[in-house]
């Protein structure tokens, strides 16, 4: 494990409390629509003109909507390890918020390990590492049936 | 009242990587379209251009740029930008002008030159820009197409072999199209042997970017009759609706859909042709041929269902049965589609209309769909832009 300081790649987008990861969103005080990334200006619901929002952590589990991987190194601003290691990506549907959120899947989980409808949970993991810091991001991880989490 | 307008002429500059200025492609397409229409350039009252964002200031004012290149003759100009739907919005502007009686005959035109290599993203940290965010965390364009493709596999049992069949079919369709960039037959084995980009999509499942130009000469029905072209193919509908909140599908460049906690989710892709059918008073059962935006092979299957050419989840069965091949019940992308063209953004929606015009006139040569009477186009791009155009004989 690296001893370098861990810095979120996007400040204020996610957090960890008691070892559990949460995406940080907002919720419209007028109509109850959730927003991620957070929105605090004007509600996008055409039937709502509210400009008041409350900060809310989003559900930290959801079901796989679809999934894929990245076989080629993406262009900048992505920072790839050398040599590039392909990674898996999942689109996960949050039940309460009724929204689908993209994210990388934790290392070691391949496309062949995933199915639509599978239960996933949010974790904070390494996105990339340079000489001084470890950049962290949210990732999806399959919920181990009967596991401690 | 009739909302129809006539298509008097169509023209294209072949798609490719020619390394020329976009204006040259547009002028070639415009001159071909004028010749096809039998209309003089000096008779054109309105030039409606589709903008390109990649060619500097002349691209932002494409309508004027083409008008000047063809020789200023006093026509009014317009330029539209609507990502992949730019051509359709330029066409819609011309239709409005014609139907209001402000102009008899118009030139609608779009062309693009693609840069060499990758577009270099702006430098610096930009966490407020969704495009910066998604690339920073490793979400690229093929990610979205692959998520849609995998969703089909999970929901409907589609296979990678089905997606390969779409490529094989489109390659066969485009093989003899003089305006197509890629004119080469492919076998399912060759598609399956190409490199995986974003599982389940391989290199040959995903379309490239190209240079190209396309132009239309459109007029009022009265003008068409006056010049002896009362039998011209007509535009019966142009839909350029925006999405309805909340989005049901994850759209590029977002990292999340809208929340449907307070309101119902809506599919944007399905809304585009729905409006076109309503406007034309034409049913999906009446469609003889479709040109759809196959940014990926699997996306062609989604479009077939959004166009209501088959029940949701059954598009792969149609492809397997040969129904979408020329000679089948409902041929899709007889031009060869983006698979054979590669995308030239401001010209692509107009190229779809050019192909359907040739099809409805019976001038498509070896690609001809027998007795084509009604054709529909569909495309979708970034930022809530998309279009669907219906042509009829
Ligand atoms: Zn609201």
Word description of this protein:
- The complex is a heterodimer of chains A (149) and B (393).
- Chain A has 149 residues and is an all-beta fold.
- Chain A has strands spanning 6-8, 14-17, 20-28, 34-35, 53-57, 61-70, 87-94, 99-105, 119-129, 134-142.
- Chain A has one domain.
- In chain A, a hairpin with a 2-residue loop joins strand 2 (14-17) and strand 3.
- The mean pLDDT of chain B is 96.
- Chain B is globular.
- In chain B, strand 10 (374-380) and strand 11 form a beta hairpin.
- In chain B, 61% of the residues are buried.
- The interface between A and B is large, with 47 and 45 residues.
- Zinc ion (ZN) is lined by residues 28, 30-31, 33, 43, 45, 48, 50 of chain A.
Report the helical percentage of chain B.
25-40%
Q: What Rg of chain B do the Cα atoms give?
A: 20 Å
Reading off the top of the CATH hierarchy, the class of the largest domain in chain B is best stated as: Alpha Beta
Number of domains of chain B: 2
- Number of domain units of chain A: 1
Number of strands of chain A: 10
The averaged pLDDT of chain B comes out at 96
Strand order of the largest sheet of chain A: 6-7-8-10-9
Beta-strand segment tally of chain B: 11
Can you say what the CATH homologous superfamily of the largest domain in chain B is? Thiolase/Chalcone synthase
Class by alpha and beta content of chain B:
alpha/beta
Number of helices, counting only DSSP H or I runs of 4 residues or more of chain B:
14
Sheet-strand content of chain A, in percent, reads over 45%
- For the report, how would you describe the main beta sheet of chain B? 9 strands, mixed
Distance between the termini of chain A: 22 Å
Going across the biggest sheet of chain B, name each strand in turn: 3-2-4-7-1-8-11-10-9
């Amino acid at each position: 494990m690296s001893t370098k300081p861990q810095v979120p790649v996007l400040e204020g987008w996610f957090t960890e409390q008691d070892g559990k990861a949460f995406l940080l969103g907002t919720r419209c005080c007028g109509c109850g629509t959730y927003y991620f990334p957070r929105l605090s200006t004007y509600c996008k619901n055409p039937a709502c003109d509210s400009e008041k929002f409350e900060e809310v952590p989003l559900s930290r589990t959801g079901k796989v909507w679809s999934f894929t991987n990245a076989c080629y190194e993406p262009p900048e601003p992505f920072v790839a390890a050398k040599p590039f290691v392909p990674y898996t990506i999942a689109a996960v549907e949050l039940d309460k918020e009724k929204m689908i959120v993209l994210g990388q899947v934790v290392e070691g989980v391949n496309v062949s390990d995933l199915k639509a409808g599978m239960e996933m949970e949010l974790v904070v993991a390494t996105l990339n590492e340079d000489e001084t810091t470890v950049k962290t991001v949210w990732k999806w991880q399959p919920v181990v049936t009967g596991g401690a989490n | 009242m009739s909302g129809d307008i006539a298509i008097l002429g169509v023209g294209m500059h072949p798609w490719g990587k020619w390394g020329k200025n976009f204006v040259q492609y547009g002028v070639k397409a415009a001159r071909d379209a004028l010749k096809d229409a039998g209309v003089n350039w000096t008779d054109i009252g309105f030039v409606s251009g589709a903008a390109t964002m990649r060619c500097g200031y002349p691209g932002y004012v494409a309508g004027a740029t083409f008008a000047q290149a063809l020789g200023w003759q006093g026509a009014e100009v317009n330029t539209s930008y609507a990502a992949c739907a730019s051509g359709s919005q330029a066409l819609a502007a011309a239709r409005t002008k014609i139907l209001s009686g402000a102009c008899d005959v118009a030139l609608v035109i779009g062309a693009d030159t693609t840069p060499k290599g990758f577009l270099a993203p702006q430098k610096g940290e930009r966490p407020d820009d969704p495009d910066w965010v998604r690339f920073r965390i490793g979400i690229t364009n093929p990610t979205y197409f692959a998520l849609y493709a995998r969703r089909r596999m999970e929901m409907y049992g589609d296979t990678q072999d089905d997606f390969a069949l779409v490529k094989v079919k489109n390659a066969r369709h485009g093989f003899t199209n003089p305006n197509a960039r890629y004119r080469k037959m492919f076998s399912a084995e060759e598609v399956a042997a190409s490199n995986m980009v974003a599982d389940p999509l391989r290199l040959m499942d995903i379309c490239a970017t190209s240079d190209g130009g396309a132009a239309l000469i459109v007029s009022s029905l009265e003008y068409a009759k006056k010049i002896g072209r009362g039998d011209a193919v007509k535009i019966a509908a142009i839909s350029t609706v925006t999405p309805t909140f909340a989005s049901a599908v994850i759209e590029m460049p977002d990292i999340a859909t809208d929340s449907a906690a307070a309101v119902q989710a809506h599919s944007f892709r399905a809304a585009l042709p729905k409006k076109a059918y309503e406007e034309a008073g034409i049913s999906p059962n009446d469609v003889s041929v479709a040109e759809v935006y196959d940014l990926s092979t699997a996306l062609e299957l989604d479009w077939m269902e959004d166009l209501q050419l088959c029940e949701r989840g059954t598009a792969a069965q149609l492809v397997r049965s040969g129904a979408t091949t020329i000679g089948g019940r409902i041929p899709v992308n007889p031009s060869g589609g983006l698979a054979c063209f590669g995308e030239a953004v401001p010209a692509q929606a107009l190229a779809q209309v050019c192909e359907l015009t040739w099809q409805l006139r019976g001038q498509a040569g070896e690609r001809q769909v027998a007795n084509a009477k009604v054709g529909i186009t569909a495309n979708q791009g970034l930022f809530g832009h998309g279009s669907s155009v219906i042509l009829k004989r």
